[in-house]
Amino acid sequence: MQRKPIYSSARTTTVEASLVSIFTRKPFCLESPELQELSSKLTPEIVETVLKSFRNWRLAQVFFNWASKQEGYSHSCYTYNALAAVLSNARQIAPLRELADSILISQCLWTPGAFGYFLRCLGSQGLIKEANDLFDQVKISGLCILNCYSYNCLLEVMSNSGDVGLLEYRLNEMRSLGCPIDKHSLTPALQCYCSARMFDKALMVFNELNEMGCVDQHVLAILLVSYSKCGEVDTAFELIEWAERNLKISLNEKTLCVLIHGFVRENRVDKALELYYKMKRLGFLADISVYDVLIRGLCKNREIGKALMLYMHMKESGISPDVRIISQLLSCISDERDMVQLLEDCWINLDMAKRMLLYNSVLKGLVNGGYVDKAYHLLKATMGSGLNVSSQVDKILLIKEKPDTTCFQTVIDGFVQS
């Protein structure tokens, strides 16, 4: 069914503008003479345009329901999709479910493309069962002549559910109908098997895609991110290197960032750091979140030298370190020169609360390094006890406010543990 172009006449534009004006007016009356007059001029094209104009999903729903009751007017699949998009973007699950239920009642005819779009709207809000049921009902009723594209859209909706049985049923149905099982069918299957953690089957699909020459950055990322989420870091890293070597595929910036965070969560900072250097070689600039997660991971593993090196890389790339990163580093180092460098980078521009946070991090660094007496000396000096200021760190940390209880607790814990 060929879609008609939206009218562009001045008359149509006036009708659209009038409808938007009336429905956004507060208060408005559905029985007003003005609306009654406009109702006779409704077309699916006008209704679609008006629906797309609303920023409020409730107004869009009220207008859609009002239009459906007007004599001589019937919704098209495109007006349904316009409202579905509004409801989906607003994450309105119950109204979206009601809209799906109304399709069979309306007896509106659908093109395969439009129906696929509606299925995706349902899937985006997790309405997998509703999408699957509607698919069968539309097929039985003859409201849409379903084709391979329709099936692929349904597979895409199912892909994140992990419902392998349902997905395999639809794939077999496609084969029996003579639909080609191609990249658009197998990519959702790969995602579904990964969501179900059925990696043996996922690898079979991946290999099938590879034989077709259909493995790209997106397909590769599906399998890699799934391995990472399941803690299979070594397997994921081997796959990255295999793809680089055999397929000449390098990961994009987004996937690299996701994997770096995932690897650190699995306490594999070593592999996360290797990915960071891959990013640099590919010309990608890591953002502050990547530096933050790597530095935290390295500090946790007591790899202070590597953490400080990353800190220098961050500064060289023009990224200003935030208080959290500097605090993390300060809590792990005890070398006075490193402390001074870190503090001088940010001390002047901080308010008192953030200075206190860094101050406590210095105390933690000294305590963790076995310098409890030095931490005690610094605490006393900051309190204005009359002790001589003997180091650069002490001079920088002469703050006007008295230390808070956290600072005292840090030093007390240090004495207890020693």
SSE order in H/E notation?
HHHHHHHHHHHHHHHHHHHHHHHH
- For this structure, the CATH topology of the domain at 10-146 is Serine Threonine Protein Phosphatase 5, Tetratricopeptide repeat
SS field, number of helical segments: 24
What proportion strand? under 5%
Q: Roughly what percent helix?
A: over 70%
* Shape label: flat
Pairing-aware structural class of the strands and helices?
A: mainly alpha
Radius of gyration: 31 Å
- Please give the number of β-strands: 0
* CATH superfamily heading of the domain at 10-146: Tetratricopeptide repeat domain
Report on this structure.
Keywords: Repeat. Pfam families: PPR, PPR_2. The protein is mostly helical. Among the domains are: 10-146, Serine Threonine Protein Phosphatase 5, Tetratricopeptide repeat (Alpha Horseshoe), CATH 1.25.40.10; 349-418, no CATH class. It has helices spanning 10-24, 33-39, 44-53, 57-68, 77-89, 93-106, 112-124, 128-141, 148-158, 164-176, 183-195, 199-211, 217-229, 233-247, 253-265, 269-281, 288-300, 304-316, 323-330, 336-346, 352-368, 372-382, 392-396, 405-417. Helix 9 packs parallel to helix 11 and helix 22 packs antiparallel against helix 24 (405-417). The protein is flat. The N and C termini lie far apart (81 Å). The model is unreliable at 1-11 (pLDDT under 50).
